[in-house]
Amino acid sequence: MQTGASQGASGGAVPGRDRQFLEVYQKVSRLISTTLDHQEVMDTIVRSLTELLIVDACTIRLLDHSTRTFVLGAAHGVSLEYLSREVIDTEETLTTVRSGTPVYNEDAAQESCPQFRQAAAQEGIKSILTVPVLYKEELIGIMRLLTRRTHQFTDAEIALAVGLSEQIGVAISHGRMFKEMEARLVFLNGIQEISTLVNFTLDIDHIFNVVVERAAVSMGAKGCTLRLINPESGLLELAASYGLSAAYLHRGEVSHERNIQVVLNGEPVAIYDVRRDPRIQYHQQMTTEGICSLLAVPVKVNGEVIGALRILSDRPRVFTDSAVRFAVTLAEVGGSAIRKARSYQKITRLMRQVQAHEEFLANIIDSLQHQLLVIDQSRRIVLANQVYLETVGKPEDEVLDRSYTELCDITSEDSPVEQVLQGREMRPFLQTSGEDQAQRWLERTAFPIHDDSGNILYVIEIIRDVTSEYLLAEERLQSGKLQAILALAGTVAHEVNSPLFAALGTAELLAEELQLPEEREELEVIVRNLKQIGELTSKMVSMTGFTDQDYAGERKILSLTQNSKDAEDRR
């Protein structure tokens, strides 16, 4: 191995070569001034140098900053198999080139690296000149000139190659800058489109589909996939895809791939050659799909990685910083959409639950057999169940927001609602309504609903119609009174009957013995009165009820009711 132009052949260029070198410079300069496509510049140079420098092949490799390896940019005169070799050169040569010094090897068969010697022998390569491609003293790639015959590169050839590599560095850098500006504009439009979509729709599936499509189209890639972690299984599941076949998408589980594991740890991954990179597992499936390079970035929500976005290219590609940032930003927008959609779904589920609970509660309230009112702090009705509405015969809109005291005709400070609102101990409250036969008795009870601070928000009042219970209690009371009076009447009649019958018998005997008409008449009056008393005791024994009758002053007397059959028998 020899380094630097000073170690080349001592002789100058052959006659006419200086003019040819100048023509190459002019052609490259025209390319740089007329095109901003650095790929076209590289393709032209590798073709031109094989003719002008009488070499058999020329390659240009660009430095991939993410992996610190040299990836193919352009080539002419060598096979694809040679270009695809794993070891492109010895570490010694690459170290020297990285320092900015050109290196040439007159006999590749003498190299120390066996893989490199074998690849060169199979391709028939004898001599190699490797030149760094620099821009502003920064290494951005390497250019190689290869011959299939032993060739000693002259100082002029090395100087020409170095000069052209500098031009290549300028062309590549300028082209990259233009492409970067152009790409950034495309990327910015893509981000704006996705951001606008996220702000105006909650259809998460539609957002996912637009994200993967926009990522692939904006980056000029073959396709894109979005996979999200299933919270239950912990596995990555396909959420959306673009530009890829079903066979590729369902090739198998991808969670254990090294590139995915790196992404799930929160770092982006760029892979130039998916066919050989050890971070890829499904090499054959990717080759069949036509995938050459990929970029994978994490999808995050609130700093937590929930998935991976992968952009897949069908041509070898070094992903620039702006491309990586664009993919990361797209993933962030997707994460924001997921967060927004999840929040909306939670709110929707909560609202549905609240609605379901409200409907359930309303059904329960309406199914109550008693009247129910809910009153707020300002003593206005905020809820009335169906039983109450049917009882008062009013529609709901005539009841809600009405004053409680006005609607219920209650002004007493002892009403249950007032007791609760004033913080007093609630006591039973009985209200009567209607007149005569239509009179009703209503029992009202109230209970407070507090907020987190213990303040009363609402009062729930239950109104029970206790008319039947009240009338039953009155009937029982009257029945008790009747039984007591009957018992008393029977006792009195029993106690009176004994002396009454004795007095009546004596009076009847005396009436038979008396001779004087005046005496007999007076005794008959006594007998008649005694018989009336006897009839009264008989009525007391057979009485079944009584009624009140007014008497002198505020007094009342009882009018006894006698069983008609018993009265007839006594007659």
Automatic annotation (TrEMBL):
Coiled coil: none annotated. It is an enzyme of class 2 (transferase). InterPro entries: GAF (IPR003018), GAF-like_dom_sf (IPR029016), HisK_dim/P_dom (IPR003661), HisK_dim/P_sf (IPR036097), PAS (IPR000014), PAS-assoc_C (IPR000700), PAS-like_dom_sf (IPR035965), PAS_4 (IPR013656). It comes from the Bacteria. Residues 424-478 form the PAC domain. One of its GO terms (molecular function) is ATP binding. CDD domains: HisKA, PAS. Its EC number is 2.7.13.3. Residues 357-415 form the PAS domain. It catalyses: ATP + protein L-histidine = ADP + protein N-phospho-L-histidine. This is histidine kinase. It comes from Desulfobulbus oligotrophicus.
